[in-house]
Amino acid sequence: MVRRVGPGEAPEVFTIGHSNHPIGAFLALLERHRTAAVADVRSVPYSRRHPQFNRRTLDRSLAEHGIRYLFLGAELGARTPDPSCYDDEGRVLFSRLAQTGRFLRGIARVLEEAVDSRLALLCAERDPANCHRTILVAPRLRERGAPVTHILADGGLVSHEEVLDRLCAANGMPPRDMFRPREGQREEALLRRAREIAWTDPARARVTE
User: Fold this and answer.
1) Rounded Cα distance, 133 and 131, in Å
2) How far is CA 23 from the centre of its chain?
3) What distances in angstroms separate CA 85 from CA 44, 74, 134, 169, one per listed residue?
4) pLDDT surpasses 70 at 4
5) Around 144, how many Cα atoms within 13 Å sit in the side-chain half-sphere?
6) What is the pLDDT of residues 60-87, one digit of tens each?
7) Residue 171 has pLDDT above 80, yes or no
8) 37 pairs with which residues across the strands?
9) Cys bridge to 70: 39, 56, 75, 206, which one at CB 3.0-4.6 A?
10) What DSSP string runs through 146-205?
11) pLDDT tens for residues 86-102?
12) Residue 7 banded pLDDT, cuts 50, 70, 90
């Protein structure tokens, strides 16, 4: 059942990491949460260690269970081919990537699809706090008013805000700080994690003298 979306209201979006789940366990997670569509946001939709999550294989498995597969890795993947999105060390800058036309089209597609289908963004990482689906994509969905909920490996659910608060705690930020509002803490925690997990391509590093 899809949550009814009122006029001017953005749809809820889920996320999930395939990790090392057997395909049956992964499908059970999706079915448990009544997922109707999966949007794959991996730049490279293949896994040598877990071939059950290769793009074509996964597409077939999902189809057999009535779940639609969408590939949005070109739009929302973290390993962009756009050279303007890399810093001097060859690291992807999420802040720049999130402003590109391709990325914004991907966000619009997710919101459009989620209106009619209970949709989950798929990436590889088990922990949402360690994945670009949370650090790069989810904040842009929240900016547009869409609630984001993460499906955990054990089947539990956690809100995007709860994940951000966990990042704040990991960075030693107290729940209440008279000098800095919680939203400011969350933004700082996001920036720190983005630098930690962003894809780095040594070939794109700029040589400085």
Assistant:
1) 5
2) 20
3) 18, 14, 18, 29
4) no
5) 18
6) 999 999 999 999 999 999 999 999 999 9
7) yes
8) 68, 119
9) 39
10) --EEEEPTTS-EEEHHHHHHHHHHHTT--S--TTS-HHHHHHHHHHHHHHHHS-B-GGGP
11) 999 999 999 999 999 99
12) low
Residue labelled with tokens 């794959």: 40
Strand, coil or helix: what is 141? helix
* Token code pair at residue 35: 């997922």
Measured distance CA(85)–CA(153) in Å, rounded: 31
In the chain, which residue ranges form alpha helices assigned H by DSSP? 23-32, 55-64, 73-76, 94-97, 101-116, 132, 138-143, 160-170, 182-197
Name the region of 79 (left: φ>0; alpha: ψ -120 to 50; beta: rest): beta
What pTM, to 2 d.p., does this model score? 0.91
Residue 165 CA to residue 186 CA, distance in Å, equals 7
Could you identify the residue written with the tokens 């290769």? Answer: 54
Question: What pLDDT is attached to residue 2?
Answer: 46
